[in-house]
Write a structure and sequence with these properties.
Pfam families: SpoU_methylase. It comes from Streptomyces phyllanthi. It contains ten helices and ten strands. By secondary structure, it is an alpha/beta fold. It has two domains: about 5-90, 2-Layer Sandwich (60s Ribosomal Protein L30, Chain: A), CATH 3.30.1330; about 95-245, 3-Layer(aba) Sandwich (Alpha/beta knot), CATH 3.40.1280. Bound molecules: S-adenosylmethionine.
């Protein structure tokens, strides 16, 4: 049997860190390829699986190897309370591009135009997974697979297509760009093939994204408030899509 600690060290730089039981549970449910998974207490981890995730318990049983605490501490920067960690294979750009380009589309794509905050990006990926969105595209320099984004996404990067693209590479579909100056979202039905675009935390929508937009849409807000947080804006917009006829896939 391959030494899991050695295998981890060989693969770590090119892999996605799944830090904690819940990240591994989600990634496994959405069929991530997991070459190595470790824990300092197999019995406790499998008991947690039996309680919270019986659907993937057998898979976790086959994946998890128990290692000493001292070895685990050398693999992760901060030990997770569940003492579980794993490495997953990042889906290729080609795989993501294929998923984003597939038509007819049954759920929107979320675009974050030059996001700056890694926590916001993770929260948006978790939302997109929950609503069954087709994918999350970022423009600009932030890597949507950065370890902090993956931590914020709770392992749900594998439940939706996550890729960085240029504005001129956006997937097909009408672009609804969210901006406080747009038309009130409450009067609109967002189509399943919508591309829902959100601006940067600092400066809002870029000129390039505005030029690409078919519709400018606003979320209701009293006049004295300038804007909402990026991730909460995505939450309200996806909720509006689902509440006006869109169905989270898998439901
Ligand atoms: C924190 S806001 C950006 C604030 C930025 N200072 C600006 O000038 O727009 C981030 C993004 O959330 C979305 N957003 C926030 N509040 C919104 C609202 N009331 N209506 C529509 N979109 C909103 C927009 O896409 C916005 O670009």
């Amino acid at each position: 049997m391959t030494d899991p600690v050695r295998l981890w060290r060989q693969l770590a730089d090119a892999s996605v860190l799944l830090d904690g039981f819940h990240a591994l549970k989600h990634a496994t449910r959405f069929r991530a390829e997991v070459p190595v998974a470790v824990t300092t207490d197999r019995e406790a981890a499998l008991a947690l699986a039996g309680e919270l995730a019986p659907d993937v318990r057998d898979t976790l049983d086959a994946l998890l190897t128990e290692i000493p605490e001292a070895a685990y501490a050398t693999l992760v920067a901060r030990p997770h309370p569940t003492s579980v960690a794993a490495l997953a294979v990042r889906p290729s750009r080609e795989t993501n591009l294929r998923a984003l380009a597939r038509t007819p589309r049954t759920a929107p794509v979320v675009v974050l135009d030059n996001p700056r905050n890694l926590g916001n990006a993770g929260a948006v990926i978790r939302l997109a997974a929950g609503f069954g969105a087709t994918g999350v595209v970022t423009t600009g320099t932030l890597d949507p697979w950065h370890p902090t984004v993956v931590r914020g996404g709770a392992g749900l990067h594998f439940a939706t297509a996550v890729e960085r693209l240029d504005v001129d590479e956006l997937p097909p579909g009408p672009v609804f760009a969210l901006d406080p100056e747009g038309d009130d979202i409450r009067g609109l039905k967002l189509p399943d093939d919508a591309v829902l675009a959100f601006g940067s935390e600092r400066s809002g929508l870029s000129a390039a994204l505005r030029a690409r937009a078919d519709h400018l849409v606003s979320l209701p807000m009293r006049p004295q408030v300038s804007s909402y947080n990026l991730a909460t804006s995505v939450a309200m917009t996806l909720f509006h899509w689902s509440a006006t006829g869109g169905a989270p896939t898998g439901s």
